[in-house]
Structure formats: C-alpha cells, structure tokens
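Marked as duplicate of an earlier ticket. Keeping the data here for the record.
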Amino acid sequence: MPDHENGTVTTERQHTLFLSIEGESTMLSADCTPLDSISDVLKAAGRLHGRSDLEEFLISLEDADDETALTAVVRDALGGKRRGRFHLHRCHRVKVGVEYNNSTIARDFSPASTVQRVLTWAVGQDGFKVEADAHDLVLQVAGTTVPLAPSVHIGTLLRERRCELSLELVPKDRVQG
C-alpha cells in the first residue's frame, strides 16, 4: 500500500484480498502489497469501506482450518498467489448439521469453509456415502428452497452470532425440455 504520509510509494506488485464477513452477503476487497501485514490490510479495507470493526474479527483464508495471524505477511498468507479470499468471523468453528433422507450428520468446520467443501464431505465417505447421484445434489439452508453457491463461505450464513448451521442436501432442480 502506498505510504502517503511519508511520501513513499512501494513498487511491489499489487495483490487483492477479498473479505467475506460473518453473517453478511456482501464481500469487501482491498489492494495491498505482498509485504503488508493482514492487520494493515484490514485497517485499509476498514477506511475504504467505512468499517471500523474489521480488526475485531478473527480471519481465515478460504477453506483453511486455522486462523491467520494479524501479523502475517500477505505473501506468506496467500502462499505465493496474488489474490485470495479471506473470511472474517467470531466463531472459531461452526457446527454444521446436514440432513439427507431423514438422517442428520454433523461436523465442525472453519467459518471460512466453502459450501463446496461441506458438500464434498456430506456426500463423501465420512458423510452419507452418496455415490451415483452425488453430482445431482446441492446444499441449501434448512427450511429454505434456494441452493447455495459452492463458493459461499459458511460463516456468511450464520445468524445472531450463533456458531451453528443447519443445511439440507437436496436434488438439483432439473429443467426438462
């Protein structure tokens, strides 16, 4: 990030971080350099988007099981990539229950886990062991009828600061022609 107060500008190639936030559907973005700390990025994103609360959250890289330290350097946190999706959350873990054919299974996930990661688990060997029709199934929030996009962070689906989420494994809608 340029340091306008000192009059210096870094020449590092820009990175872009995308930030999803617990319970919110809108994603924020922030440009930074590879040598910026995660804390610096959150401060800059807070100023850019009018959010003074971003540093109050824990932060995790998408689909990572552990939190990312605020002191971590962007380059290290992204593992060499120039773009990354992070999730800001208050829950260390989310207890996700998935219902399918009148049975329910549950497992703890990071709030930064994507719906695709949960779906892969739910249909896999540690889940319902769905084989033939697994590609025809989607997840939706229990009691709703809208399939969830695979890239959605499960932490964005949490409400009322509860660290639990109930999902249903259902067939995709098929358009018959």
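See parent ticket for discussion. The first strand starts at residue 15 and ends at 21.
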